[in-house]
Amino acid sequence: MFCPKCKAEYRSGFTVCADCDVPLVDKLPEEKELPPKPPYKQLKALFNTAEIAVIKSILDDAKIDYYFRGERFQAMHVPLVDPAILMIREDQFEAVKKLLEELE
Ligand SMILES: [Zn+2]
């Protein structure tokens, strides 16, 4: 049994995570953090949710494939502790860098 929140493993017999107070599950959902193919490169780390929103709309408009690693949008009201790391496909990396430079 696993806690879906903190991913702690429990022996059978337990039904609730002692730390998180959430029901345990048989299996953890598949990790979605694995980088998609083709290889992605880290462009920059962003701490500001407003800035992230702007960058997302620009990249969507430009039809760029990207994803953020470590973003915590489910905790909008909590200050960002971990940066969201902007990951860009290697073959689009230079184009995105230019786009964002124009932005600044
Ligand atoms: Zn837990």
Secondary-structure map:
Layout lengths: L39 E7 L2 H13 L4 E4 L14 E6 L3 H11 L1
Antiparallel strand pairs: 1-3, 2-3
How would you describe this protein?
By secondary structure, this protein is α+β, with helices and mostly antiparallel strands. It has 2 domains: 1-30, no CATH class; 40-103, 2-Layer Sandwich (Alpha-Beta Plaits). The protein has 2 helices and 3 strands. It is elongated, with a radius of gyration of 18 Å. It starts with 39 loop residues before the first strand and ends with a helix. The mean pLDDT is 83. The structure holds zinc ion (ZN). Zinc ion binds next to loops.
Low-confidence stretches: none
Strand order of the largest sheet: 1-3-2
CATH fold description of the largest domain: Alpha-Beta Plaits
Percent of residues in helical segments?
10-25%
Q: Could you tell me which ligands this complex binds, including any ions or cofactors?
A: zinc ion
Q: Beta-sheet strand percentage?
A: 15-25%
Domain module count: 2
CATH superfamily of the largest domain: UreE, C-terminal domain
Largest sheet, described in full? 3 strands, antiparallel
**3D shape:** elongated
List SSEs in N-to-C order: EHEEH
Count the beta strands.
Answer: 3
Count of individual helical segments: 2
Look at the helices and sheets and give the structural class: alpha+beta
> What Rg do the Cα atoms give?
18 Å
CATH hierarchy, class of the largest domain: Alpha Beta
Mean pLDDT: 83
CATH architecture of the largest domain: 2-Layer Sandwich
Distance between the amino and carboxyl termini: 48 Å
